[in-house]
Protein 1
Amino acid sequence: MKIFQQAVSLRKRRRGFHLITEEVLNALPQISEIKMGICQVFIQHTSASLTINENADPTVRVDFEMFFNKVVPENDPDYEHDYEGSDDMPAHLKSALLGSSVTIPIRNGRLALGTWQGIYLCEHRNHGGQRKFVITAWGE
């Protein structure tokens, strides 16, 4: 059994949905040493999230942002947690809906993503800053 882990900070991004698959692979190149296993990507924040979805057409990422802004609007007067701005509580809710980690099978030294799948960093804050991740891969 091989186990590899890397903590990484990704550069600041604007609000929206951003493909980070290549950055994950670059951060943990030892994935290529695993014939069969699992890779987990975990974000260490409560106002950004991770998901896997369409990696080819950028309009999918635009539509994700539009959808989540409709479902979890800003400036709702019922939010009590608003110390960090009108995007803060909605960011926490969006993060809770999407989740803080993704788990991907490793097959023959590669992430076993589907043809049109990629890993998204979902930045829910207007000024989220650098985001920290822990990437862990294990297997044979």
Note: Residues 5 and 136 are 4 Å apart (CA to CA).
Protein 2
Amino acid sequence: MRAFTVDRYGKTGNDLRAADVPEPEVRENDVLVQIHAAGVNALDAKIRDGEFKLILPYRLPVILGNDVAGVVVRVGPRVRKFKPGDEVYARPDKDRIGTFAEFIAIHEDDLAAKPKHLTMAEAASVPLVGLTAWQALIEIAALRKGQKVFIHAGSGGVGTFAIQLAKHLGATVATTTSAANIDLVTSFGADVVIDYRKDDFETVLRDYDVVLNSLDNATLMKSLQVLKPGGKLISISGPPDPHFARELGKPWILRPVMRVLSHRVRTAAKRRGISYSFLFMRASGAQLREITSLIDAGIIRPVMDRVFPFEATNEAMAYVEKGRTKGKVVIKVK
């Protein structure tokens, strides 16, 4: 099958390589999916560049890609939830990525039926950002009606989804974006919109319950200023904390490393009576089914920026890396 692989880590001149590779092995609880579309995420570039090699030590070459929508073609002998011909979508487990390809084998627990009214491309745009928003706002933040949440980068993939989910939960939502995207984020329900090119969010916002950060460390530290005591700062862009190392089951030697990496923000947060959490979202078919119900009910809609052909996967990656996408970028495989 055709696939795009990472052969070596590095930031400079390191395009993915188009390669012919064997079809994946289908284990007893696996579903073999013919890939119709795959979402492209900033995470893909970070993996390619080696930013996660400490915590995700893939054996190279590795097929890249963390979002998929497609059709089941074969199932393992112990699979009970799916059959050939089913339309499905997923964020594969972090140890079994590889959606920039024609086929992928996924554990059935990580899969869900594709939302009925979405195209394959639209469905492929959902899993990673949807699960990230769900795990941040529902699992970690326990966001509830009447609370206030500040979501950075509201016009991006995670931002557009998180705004809609937060509004569904009954929260007041603030976000940042450029002037060109103010109408977009307002259409999803954002109550307070800050043009990041004109205003400093930390001077405008006060007494928020939750902040969801997806930007750099400087922005992360400024975010502490908008939270009230007892508030929760959740970051999907780092730095990782010791709890994350324990969750991954990583060797004890990595825990001091992550303690050092997150020391500054954890100390500053503790001083203000705020909790800090790093989120590296996990695959979950059960949570995807909850998300599907919201999509099918019209409560949340995916936001698509561009669809690239499979052959232009490197161009799609470069487009995402510019950091100016409205919603998600997808590659059409089949």
Note: The longest helix spans residues 127-140.
